[in-house]
Specification:
This protein has 3 helices and 2 strands, in the order ααββα. It has 74 residues and is an alpha+beta fold. The chain has one domain.
Length: 74
Amino acid sequence: MTYDYDEEFGPLATPRDAMREYADWVGAESPDVPWILTDYDVWVPNPHYHGPAVPHPEEAVDYPDDYLCEDEEA
């Protein structure tokens, strides 16, 4: 006898499904936060945020200046 999990319960959740569900739960508790960092180290938009558009957190960082030494100029 074989057991078919998918037949009884449906397919397993994917990592994308898990991130969306996490963002839904956490975002409901923090509707003023535009982006949520998941356990997968991925930023996802908060589905409950209804404020002004905010750029992706990693796009707002100016990386080149972060790697300059104190005596170097941009």
